[in-house]
Amino acid sequence: MLISIMYIYTISGTTDYVTLMGYELEEKVQKLVFLGFIASLAVKIPLYPFHI
Amino acid sequence: MEAPVAGSVLLAGVLIKLGSYGIIRYSVGLTPLACEYFAPVMYTLSILGVIYASLTTIRQTDLKRIIAYSSVGHMGIVTIGIFTMNVEGIEGSIYLQLGHGIVSSGLFIVVTLLYERYHTRVVKYYRGVTMTMPIYSIIFLVLTMSNIGVPGTSNYIGEIMAIAGAMEENALVAVLAGVGMVLSASYGLFLYNRVCFGGISSYMTEAPRDVTRREMYVLVPLVVLALVLGL
Fold first, then answer.
1. pLDDT tens, position by position, B77-106
2. Helix, coil or strand: residue B62
């Protein structure tokens, strides 16, 4: 998750959520960022392979 | 699993919802194209989670463990609702989180009351609680029914909306999520039946006392909220 946030910061120059809403990420970048976020959030929600 | 009741209630009621909040906020908000791309994977994981967690829950013999494992199944439905990416799905999953937070916390408290009286959490030692603790049984029944998702309770609205949202995207996902809800009914009713009905268990030797005033102050708001949110 932190790596995803840092990656967003390096390519867009901001971590402000409201500013980022007006900033369209490329699809390839979106997929990588999504994987980074879901890896941490899936542990938080007990999603199936991470629920132990 | 050996956590105190306050820890369990906070974990089930608040902390678990942070994950799905993060998905709604970050994944759906910042990366909508990737969400559509990865939706089939997330559906698969969620459905596996719902069915596998429910089947695991049926085999548990520990009161608190049954309640804790049931959260995994319900959060699977929440994830399915989020990744449908339509209004019904996302609103239904938010509503289901709200209802689950109330109902699961209530069930943890209810189970802990039993543990405080008899100092065991194994289901097989309990039988016939309706005879000795009638008010407790009614509260337990309402919360169990809410956890199953009987119409008129808060979880029903969330589940029906999340499954309706999934039906728009993919009928198979909706059907398998429905199978998960049937399994959740099986372990919910199994738990209530074994604990509350039947003759009084010979292991329950201590003088029983019903729900005290202090415990009512904790439980009544949760029961009322579970019913009011389901109107």
1. 999 999 999 999 999 999 999 999 999 999
2. strand
The distance from CA B9 to its chain's CA centroid, rounded to whole angstroms, is 12
Domain containing residue B86: 5-228
Residue among B26, B42, B52 whose CB faces A37 most closely = B26
Which pTM was predicted?
0.91
Give DSSP secondary structure letters for B83-103: HT-SHHHHHHHHHHHHHHHHH
ipTM of the complex: 0.88
Task: Give the mutation candidate from B21, B31, B67, B83 for the A interface (greatest A CB count, under 10 A).
Answer: B31
Domain boundaries in chain A? 2-50
CB contact under 8 A, B75 and A45: yes
CA distance A33 to B57: 34
